[in-house]
Every structure is written in structure tokens, then in C-alpha cells.
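Try it yourself: sequence plus nicotinamide-adenine-dinucleotide, in.
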Amino acid sequence: MLSIQNFIDGSFHHAADGEFLEDFNPATAQCIATIPRSKSVDIEPAVAACQAAQSAWSALSLDQRADWLDRIADALEQKAERIAQLESMDTGKPIALSRRVDAARSVSNFRFFASFGREQSELTFQMEDAMNYVHRSPVGTVGLITPWNLPLYLLTWKVAPALLMGNTIIAKPSEITPLTANLLAETLLELEFPKGVFNLVHGLGPEVGQAILEHPDIKAISFTGGTETGRIVARTAAPMFKKLSLELGGKNATIVLKDAELDKAVDGAVRAAFTNSGQVCLCGSRIFIEASLEEEFTRRFIEKVNALQIGDPQDENTNMGTVISPEHLMKVESYINLAIEEGGVILTGGTRAMTGYNGPEGIGAYLLPTVVGNLHYTSRCATEEIFGPMVTLHAFTSEEEALEMVNSSEYGLAGSVWTNDLERGRAFSAQIDSGIVWVNTWLHRDLRTPFGGVKNSGVGREGGRWSLDFFSEMTNVCIKKHDSN
Ligand code: NAD
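Structure, out:
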């Protein structure tokens, strides 16, 4: 069992009051680590460390900071297998997924921002009689708060651009998945990364998370998590005029138009629905099918879902592991019960996956992938974010009707459209109220593009220049030319 500590000013510390929390493996229900239950008193030394480190870090050139990002990427790449193992143990996700997505992307976040940073040139605007120079300076100390579904992937997506732009950091990972954030801190210590630039505090959201939001010397908050928590973040930090980036929940649509290539659409819809047990913010949990395809699509979709291998996350062949915790399992189950009350029909799944592979004591948080038909698109199960292995199917008879159904959601994060007519797909996608739409693919990411949601899915964009903009203050210097006469 690991005894994890906060990482402040380049060294590891317990919470000031010595309190700690336990971290469990959802596949075995075993306690795998303890973490500090930090409070506001633990934020003070982290802020002090940031302030002491700020000027030397921001005095480095952008290229020097990009070199640091590359060094961090190299070191994490050496530990890719360890990252995958820790992430799988902490979240219950399959080891193969952890390697392919979590470990790989945590490395590429640093690599991408290093090379993207080096490509940037100074922004200038010429006038007839003057020249404008846009200057970027760091925001200062920034707070990075992240969720449990893609722990290191989402943390490094914020850490890399924040460091690149010369900021100092106080990071708080989810209290239920702290292991890889700790590994990042250990890696920075091994690399002799400048002390105080990156600080990590563990603990509960309403305690240490809230203390980060409230601290007057933390100038920006980049938050990824649920919409309700996002409201608290906004309510606390906005009146203090902190910069805010809010990446929140979703209820994403997969839309199968009548000219879709069915095999590809089915594969894509299954992947979008059940990757990471449906616990990716981009997962497509509402599937809209053109009515003439409904029967055939549903038959093939269920066949594919039933072929998913649910089981031990450590098994290379497992496609779906557990959900994040027993509490979350019960939440998803309550939605399955609600679906039945709402008149839905469970087409497959609907129960815990009980035999053979639910841990030595039979207590792993395994749930069968669940597909529900016959629900109205405005029902609670089809509109509320469940964030688990449960999807609803809906038929439509025209594109107008499909758009009406899809856009009725209060969320607007992502979606995918399946069609053989790419122009039609593009025109249709542009009418979806959503930050990201994929045509004939899902979770196909170019890190230069804007990432973020509309409506209750968030405010602001991450990725490429949007991350650089968030993690810097832009100021303009306008220089009047000498008069020529
Ligand atoms: P959550 O909102 O419960 O927690 C997210 C983080 O916020 C955690 O670190 C938590 O400790 C912290 N927190 C909680 N209360 C806080 C408070 N009062 N002040 C400060 N911090 C606080 O979310 P979760 O359950 O960890 O993650 C699942 C949610 O995240 C889902 O809604 C999912 O859609 C969303 N998500 C969104 C994206 C995206 O990019 N839009 C990506 C991944 C996950």
C-alpha cells in the first residue's frame, strides 16, 4: 500500500493536521493508498512556494521551458508501463486502454505543447503610423483541478501549457484517483525540476479544492469535472475575477444517418458508448438512428455489445473493466431502475456482472454494458448525465427531427455523425449545438484544435493556442512611428 504525500516546494509532506483519506481499487475493493486530507492551511505553503519560484521560472525563455516539457515527456515515457498499471489499478479500466490512451496521451501532452510552443511567433499588427506588439506574460499562480476518469491524461493537458507559458502551479487531482499525479511529482523531483513551480495537494473537493478556488493569490482556475461542481467553481472564483476555464459534463449524441455505412457506424457507436465503461466525458450515451435503419442497427449493435469482454482490468483481453467505485455503480443502477419506471426496455445488460471476474471476494464494481430502448428522448435517462455503461436508443424520421432531439439537451460537449455523404455530414454537424462533432469517427483528436463545450458543458476552450491564451495574459504595446517630416 502506498502512502502518498503532498508535493510542495520540491519535497513531500503529509497534511499539516496529519489527517488522511483512503484510496481503493474498484476491481478488488482493496485499499491501495492513503493520501493527505489537506485543508486550506496546506495551501498556504504551496502558494508561498509558487510565489518564490515565479520570477525565475517566468524569466526562462519559452524555448527553455519547452525543453523542460520535453524532458518531462522523456521521463514519463520511460515510465509508461508504470503509469498504465497505476491508472488501471486506481480506476478499474482495462490495462490495454490505460496503455493506449492514458499513458500515451500523458506523454504526448508534454511533447505536443513543447513543439507547439516553439512554433509560436510574436503577434504584431501594423498600422500606417504605428506598430502593435502583443506581449504574453504568465498569469501567475494557477489552480488545476481534475476528475477521476482520465487522471494523468487530463492533469498533464493542463500542466504542460501552464508550465510552457511561465506559470506556477497548484494541482489537485481527484481524491479517488491520486496515484499518477503522485508519480508526476516523483518524476519532477527525479528530474530536479525547479522547486516550487509545480505543487500538488491531495484531498477532498469541498475542503482543499474549495481553498484553491478561494485563495486570492491563485489567479486562474482550470477545472475539469461535473457541471454541478463547475457551478460552485464559477460562483466562488468569478467574483474574484479569476480567469476560469470550465470543462464540464456531457450527454453526447451518436447520430446514424440513413446513408451510413452500418458496420462502421455500429463499431463507432459501441466504442463511443462503452470506452472506459462509458466514463469519458465525450462518450456517446444517446444514440439516434434513422428509422429505416433502426431494426438492423439495433440488432448489430447489441450483438457487438454482447461480445465485449468484461472482466479483470489486468487481463490484456478485457474490453471493459469496472466503473469507478461501488457508489458510482449504485448511481448507474438507480438510472437503470429509473429507465424501467420511465417505460424503457432493457435490450441487454441491466445488471451487475457477477460471476467469475469480479475480484477474489466478488465485490468488484462491475456492471454489464446496458442498452435501453423505448424511452422518449426527453426522459430523465436520456437527458441527465449518467457517466456509466448505459446508453439509450432513439429513432428519428428526418434530419430536422434528429436535430431537434439532439439539441434539446442542456449539454453540448461532443457528438458523432455517421454518413457516407461527407458534405451532408459537415452541414448537419454544423447545426449541432456542441463543442466538438466527429463525422465517421469518434475521439479522433488533433491537439491543436479547440476543445470544450457549450451550454452546461462548460465555458472556454483548451488545446493549441486556446490553452496558451488561457495560461497567459496578453498585453498590447502600440508604438507610434517618428513623424516623417
Ligand atoms: P467532480 O466535479 O465531482 O470532481 C472534479 C474535481 O473537482 C475533483 O478533483 C474534486 O475533488 C473537485 N471538487 C469537488 N468539489 C469541489 C469544490 N467545491 N471546490 C473545488 N474542487 C472541487 O467530477 P468527477 O466525478 O471527478 O468527474 C466526472 C465528471 O467530470 C463528469 O461530469 C464528466 O463529464 C466530467 N468530465 C468532463 C470533461 C471535459 O473535458 N468536459 C472531461 C472529463 C470529465
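One thing you can check immediately is this: Residues 145-149, 154, 172, 174-175, 205-206, 209-210, 213, 224-226, 229, 232, 247-250, 281, 385, 387, 413, 453, 458 surround nicotinamide-adenine-dinucleotide (CB under 6 Å).
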